[in-house]
Design a protein that fits this description.
10 strands, alpha+beta
Length: about 220
């Protein structure tokens, strides 16, 4: 496994593990949901950098790298796209093939009948994108090993998803002038509160900065 450090929401970073030979990603608990848009883009770059040879087939049973419990094959859905992965029964994380991660992000789609017909005219056998097994197009349009339909990378979906991630990351990292103004107002209110407290206490002035700070934070959240 190769460790890849990625940006985490709302702050900080997280580390996911990639296996280039098996073309899988290990996410610890909730890490796939904690990726920032920029972190997701970085992960796509990391997958692209390691995606060279056909994947080594995953042979069950697969074990959790944290507790060595056998991973459970799991089906999930994102929007209208179904994808699969292997999860730890004790919640330590999930093992997701590169291809299934691409399905989760709507980067691939099933081949249409006309595309399958045109492909069968020119190519007799193709490799399953999910598990790497050969598929004889003269006999079937699904993988005989993992039962996955034949899929193709969707350029339109890739472009759309990358643009959405890039825009989301720009929004996340670009300061909002309205929120900056709210923060300035909240700080000004905090200064006024401190001035009133100082005037009331006179020479023996003491103030609870935590209490005043909570008051300013409350106003800021109310205005946001």
């Amino acid at each position: 496994m190769t460790a890849v450090e990625l940006a985490r929401k709302p702050l900080g970073s997280l580390t996911v593990d990639l296996c280039a030979a098996c073309q899988v990603i290990w996410f610890d608990t909730f890490e796939s949901l904690q990726l920032t848009p920029g972190g997701t883009l970085e992960l796509f770059h990391a997958i692209h950098a390691t995606h060279r040879d056909p994947p080594r087939p995953l042979t069950p049973p697969l074990s959790c790298p944290r507790c060595e419990t056998v991973l459970a094959a799991t089906q999930d859905i994102q929007h209208t796209t179904r994808f699969s992965y292997y999860r730890c029964r004790y919640g330590h994380g999930r093992l997701t093939p590169f291809f299934q991660f691409m399905r989760e992000k709507n980067f691939v789609r099933p081949l249409e009948p006309r595309e399958l017909a045109r492909l069968a005219e020119n190519v007799k056998t193709i490799r399953c994108s999910s598990c790497g097994a050969p598929v004889d197009l003269a006999k079937t349009t699904t993988c005989g090993y993992c039962k996955s339909p034949l899929m193709v990378l969707d350029p339109d979906a890739v472009g759309r998803t990358l643009a959405e991630l890039d825009a989301a990351e720009r929004r996340r990292t670009t300061p909002d002038p309205d929120r900056q103004g709210d923060a300035i107002i909240a700080l000004a209110a905090l200064e006024r509160d401190m001035a009133r407290a100082r005037a009331a206490e006179g020479a023996d002035f003491t103030v609870d900065l935590v209490s005043l700070g909570f008051g300013a934070l409350g106003r800021f959240l109310h205005w946001s």
